[in-house]
Amino acid sequence: MPDTKARDGARRLRVAVVDDDRAVRDVVCDTLESEGIEAVACACAADLFAAVARPEGLDMIILDLQLPDGDGFGIAAGIRATNPVPIIMLTGRGGDLDRIMGLEIGADDYVVKPFNARELLARVKAVRRRMTNDFDAARPIRNGYRFLGYVMDVDRRRLTAPSGAPVALTVAEFDLLHALVQRHGRVLSRDQLLEITHRAADDIFDRTIDVLILRLRRKIEPNPTSPRFIKTERGHGYVFDVKVDEIGGR
């Protein structure tokens, strides 16, 4: 097993590479390891579940949709139900419907085979930049927002519900919510939101925003079918339409 500590003593990013094609697994794992990322090779869903259950857990999952012991969509949905770990879908199916399904179950990105290993590495790094492992609850929030009982800690990328319970958001969901909250009261088009969240370059169509909006509404709206926070301005885009207070001296 690879050493889980970097040379400076910090824990390395731990990424599961789930694909039944050994050649694909080896290429992806070698590419990640060359960048100091710990790659956990998984040939099937059972291997992935075992890796998820280990005490050290996973920081990210690269998941092929076609596995011998399960469908990638169902596997991702099962993991996403209890775990916000970022998921990058890896598949030979590039249709819009498959991309939408991946987003709906909580995937953070979608890479179509055949792919360039360096491009996949760039996707991993992009997701990594939007992650945090800092969970020191005692440290005051220096950069955040409050709205109707919710508390958003931007630096540690955490959202807390009025009850005090954490709200599990994927990387993409947090990025979108941050963009909306930061510009509360302003109507933002899909193209603007794609650009603000740096997803325009990810080869993802504007339907991405609609799917992420639906997911956010299910997690924070009292009644997702009659949104109180994220409202639709037909023909224009979306607006975060509640009072927002900033936290911290920025």
From TrEMBL:
Keyword Cell membrane: no
Location of the OmpR/PhoB-type domain: 142-242
DNA-binding region coordinates: 142-242
GO terms under biological process: regulation of DNA-templated transcription
Cellular-component GO terms for this entry: cytosol; protein-DNA complex
Molecular function as annotated in GO: phosphorelay response regulator activity; transcription cis-regulatory region binding
Residues annotated with 4-aspartylphosphate modification: D64
Subcellular location(s) per record: Cytoplasm
Name of the protein in its database record: Regulatory protein VirG
